[in-house]
Task: structure prediction
Amino acid sequence: MVSNLKQVLFKPIFLVLVFSLSCFSLENQLNPLFLELVKGMSLEGTPTLAILPFSAPAQGDDAQAGQMVSEYAVAFFASQNQFQLVDRADFHRVLEELEFSQSDLADNEKTLELGKTLVAAYLVTGSITEALGKKMISAKIIKTETGEIVNSQTVTVNSQALTDFYKDALGEKASASSAIYRSLAVPGWGQFYTGHSVHGIVFSSLTAVSLGVLVYGIFDFVDKDERVANSIGKELVDGSSSQSDSIRAIYMQERDDAQVFVYSMIGVTAGIWVVNVIDAAIFGKKESNRVKKLYFSMNHDLRNSGWNAQLAYRF
Result:
């Protein structure tokens, strides 16, 4: 019975823990990148910020990844409330007026001209490059009036992680099922995915605690079950009762109580998991109703960029 209990309980717990370790997404690297970019800046009021598309190779996965990193930057700074972002319609209008193309992203003079035309106090620009099989995402913030680079930051990421990031964003961000799937796999992940970190922390913490108590209960049950087995085994070997019936009855009662506790904790953990999935589904549904067109998309592709105007993304 003990070996069966171990198989039923330990294996799923082990798989969940292993899966959890593999769930670190590119977002966990982009957040510190953008936080460090504006860290220590002395701002007066809420200055206007323009975010430019991150430059990347014009073809292949990197082109799409560059666009999605830019979109993520828009979402990130919009949530920080430190800046007022340039209106999307104004951004597109100025791009058309200046006939701004992807190749212009690397031209400092043209980006400054764009920033001034947008009446933005600061510009965020960036690029995606490759070195030694790794992708480097670089970002810098520029004071438009003087052209001064206020700060710059670089993070090195796995190439596959970058590819998965844009495919995930384009294919799933607008789907409530994505949040459900994530929280079903790892409690709290769906809430983090939809931007509700407080709920994510609550459910991940509750699940961690309940799993910890469950593991403790399993070990406690195994220990008490072995004590009962040893007591009975010794009696069979010796041919005489080494323990009084009353003491053995106490051991067996303690074992049965430990077993009940284990099954109770299984129910509690499962309950937390279910409520967590329901919570993720609610937020996922709300977020799916807020789907907007890409900040950088236009009624036609940017000249020479190949960026598709029909894509959708939540921010």
